[in-house]
Each structure stands twice: as structure tokens, then as C-alpha cells.
Amino acid sequence: MSVEKELFAAIDHHLLQDKRPSAYLKEVSDLPEFKNYPFNMLLDLKETEQEPAHHPEGNVWNHTMLVIDEAAERKDRSNNPKAFMWAALLHDIGKPAATELRNGKLTAYNHDKIGEKLSKKFLLSVDAPETFAEQVSTLVRFHMHILYVVKDMPFGDIKGLKNHTDIHEIALLGLCDRLGRTDADLKKEEENIALFLSKLANKERIS
């Protein structure tokens, strides 16, 4: 087994077994092999800053570590905990490529679409089954739809969301994403998830 496959297997174990998988990820991120492809894509998260108004926790790595710990607490509510946890780890893998300064603010437009492709490449490069890579990358692709639907933004693909993934998995991932910040309000974010599901149900009744 290659070093990359061994590291993938170890991360997989800790994502599914640890109460706080961030502790292990932070430890192994300092190892030389973490600089190898595809894990260097995760290292890039440490160098990618975010707009402080939305992410007071700092860079994308800090955010991702908070998200995987939130996901670990809720993975038993997922229909596919393995795909769910890997989606939590890789959900913002598109941000390094997408992040830029616009009008004095850091933005990461289309990081969800970029992340869909990169997360699939990541998993296939360590010989993960293609079906599994597709499950994870689809969750990554649609993880921003909580915001798009709740705020009636024009970036959504509601038909694709309903046809290609489980909206309840997206809702659970979206909740963990929203809670992965230092100033998160659990009650408010749970209300946003309920609103997301309600709006989708209303759209389905209307259509």
C-alpha cells in the first residue's frame, strides 16, 4: 500500500471514529507526506484566508477543522456517514482556487463547483471507489444551497439538488458548515435549515 493510501485510510478511520477528528488532522498535517498530492490540497486551506465578517475563525483550514468536529457529533443522523464526513472535510477544497479580493472583501465565488471537481480528483487519486467519490463530490457541489435557497439567491440549481442528492444530507452538511465558525448561533442556524427544507417543500408543491 502506498503512503498516500495509508494516510487516506488513517484519515478515514479518524473521521468515522473520533469525537474530534480535527485533533488527528492537525497532527498529521505537519507530516512530510501531507505535502504530497492530493493531501497538499488540504494544506492549501491553511494559506487561504476568509472574509473576517463571515469567518472570524480565520483561514479555511481553521473553518474546516471546526466543521468536521461538528459533523462528527451528527454523523449518526446521516444516511451515509462515510461520504458525509469526507464531504465535511473536502467541502471547501475549491476555495484556494476561487478566493480573490473584490472591492476590499475576500470572496470565493463558485468554490462549490470547483470543489466538486477537486474533491472527486482527490478521492480517485487514492483509489477510492468512483461511486463513493461521486457521492462525496455531489455533497460538496450542493453544500452552498442552504444559503442560496434561504436568501433566494440566483446561484442555485434546485432541480439538480433534488435529482442528484438527498436534501436532508445537504441540510445536515449545511448545518455543520454554518456551525463551523467561532461565533455560530445554534438556534439561528437550525432555524435556517428548517427554512431551507420548508422552502424546498413549497417549491415542490408549486411545481
TrEMBL record:
Keywords: Nucleotide-binding. SUPFAM superfamilies: HD-domain/PDEase-like. Signal peptide: none annotated. GO terms for molecular function: nucleotide binding. The keyword Nucleotide-binding applies. The keyword Nucleotide-binding applies. Residues 61-145 form the HD domain. InterPro entries: HD/PDEase_dom, HD_domain, HDIG_dom, tRNA_CCA-adding_enzyme. It comes from the Bacteria. This is HDIG domain-containing protein.
